[in-house]
């Protein structure tokens, strides 16, 4: 009867290979460690006693795999379970932070013949749950009339100048330091009621463009 030679677990490495920003999951981390040692899926499957298709699904993110499975795979590659998980949380946390350059370099949308402008204060707006923008309105200018879908909320904080918030049939005077929280599905717009430029911070959830 023919037998299949099972490769013994690899010796523990003195140091781990560098894991780039793409390794944000167990599957990506496993794939990186396996390829860094030039181990094929078939070889790893034989050593770990885990089906090849299972390993492939874990690496591609189609399956999470069990803790027992993770231990077998890490051991077969010569690593501890903590090595397989190492760096994943740090990569996720790093990816969750977005730093925007100074306001003057952000995307700016101008309305009403240059009388008002909206500057996006973060990137990849539609991938986030909040949309913070800087609204700048020239004297006698106003923003476009807006009416978002039901469930959309907006917060406005006046940084400088004097504004009128027209919400439905009501008009709310706002000055520096004033804030307004509203249901953005109600038709609304902002008007500069002063003689100088007015600026306010506006945060919308969920994001709308």
In short:
The chain is of the alpha+beta class and 209 residues long. It folds into two domains: 26-95, 434 Repressor (Amino-terminal Domain), CATH 1.10.260; 103-205, Jelly Rolls, CATH 2.60.120.
Explain the overall architecture:
By secondary structure, this protein is α+β, with helices and mostly antiparallel strands. The chain folds into 2 domains: 70 residues, lambda repressor-like DNA-binding domains (434 Repressor (Amino-terminal Domain)), CATH 1.10.260; 103 residues, Sandwich (Jelly Rolls), CATH 2.60.120.10. The chain has 6 helices and 9 strands. A 6-stranded antiparallel beta sheet has the order 1-2-3-9-4-7, with no helix packed on it. Strands 6-5-8 form a 3-stranded antiparallel beta sheet, with no helix packed on it. β1 and β2 form a beta hairpin. It is rod-shaped, with a radius of gyration of 27 Å.
